[in-house]
Amino acid sequence: MKDIPAQVIYECIHDPDYRKTWDDRMIEGFLIEQIDECNDIGYYSVAMPFIISNRDWVNRRSWWHNPEMTEFIIFNFSHKHPLVPEKSGFVRAWSYKSGYYMKTTEKGTMFYYFGWNSWNGWIPAWCVNKATKTMVGGVIDSLMKQSAAYEEWKSKNKPEDRPWLRLNDWQRKEKEEYDAKHAGDKKEEETKEEEKK
């Protein structure tokens, strides 16, 4: 993707209010427990296509970004939680590992999604394949289209509320080391700019 920075896509995936604009399969999503600055447990349910029963997940999600805000990872795996038992009307699915990787490059943003899920219940293999292709492809397409409008939307909707961009302790240390390593480069650039004037 040439026109959408990796950080914008990362924020679109994280922002629970904005997710409603691009994930039209989502029925409900909410935070169950915040573990620390880059780990939480959340609930997510989706409307399934055809005659397949709706599915829901309870997942532990982790995320990371580099100090330069050019590389981002979000991944999850299913987790049982006493506050959210299985409920009527949904089949509890299981994520063995699912996630996103985004990186800003000179040519644009590299974007990867992978999913390793068990839908559970009884579904014929052809139906699983069709549902997965339809749902995942549609959701990713919608995410890319809606990402273009995110920054303008966010400027009017809790613009300071971006906990997914905070640096935790080890990321702060990594940033300090990066800044110290490149301080000379920055000073050299500033000197060159001054000389041009």
Separation, N- and C-terminal Cα atoms: 36 Å
Q: Which descriptor suits the 3D outline? A: elongated
Range of strand content: 25-35%
Largest sheet: 7 strands, mixed
Order of helices and strands: HHEEEEEEEHHH
What class would the helix/strand composition place it in? alpha+beta
| Helicity level | 25-40%
The helix tally amounts to: 5
**What is the CATH topology assignment of the largest domain?**
Alpha-D-Glucose-1,6-Bisphosphate, Chain A, domain 4
Which regions have little confidence, pLDDT < 50, spanning 5+ residues? none
What is the name of the CATH class of the largest domain? Alpha Beta
CATH architecture of the largest domain: 2-Layer Sandwich
Domain count: 2
Rg over C-alpha atoms, rounded to the nearest angstrom: 20 Å
Got a strand count? 7
Mean pLDDT value: 88
Within CATH, the superfamily of the largest domain carries the name START domain
Give an overview of the whole structure.
Helix content is 38%, strand content 32%. The chain is α+β, with helices and mostly antiparallel strands. The chain has two domains: 6-166, START domain (Alpha-D-Glucose-1,6-Bisphosphate, Chain A, domain 4); 168-197, no CATH class. Strands 1, 2, 3, 4, 5, 6 and 7 form a seven-stranded mixed sheet that branches. Helix 1 (6-14) crosses helix 3. The chain is elongated. The chain starts with 5 loop residues before the first helix and ends with a helix.
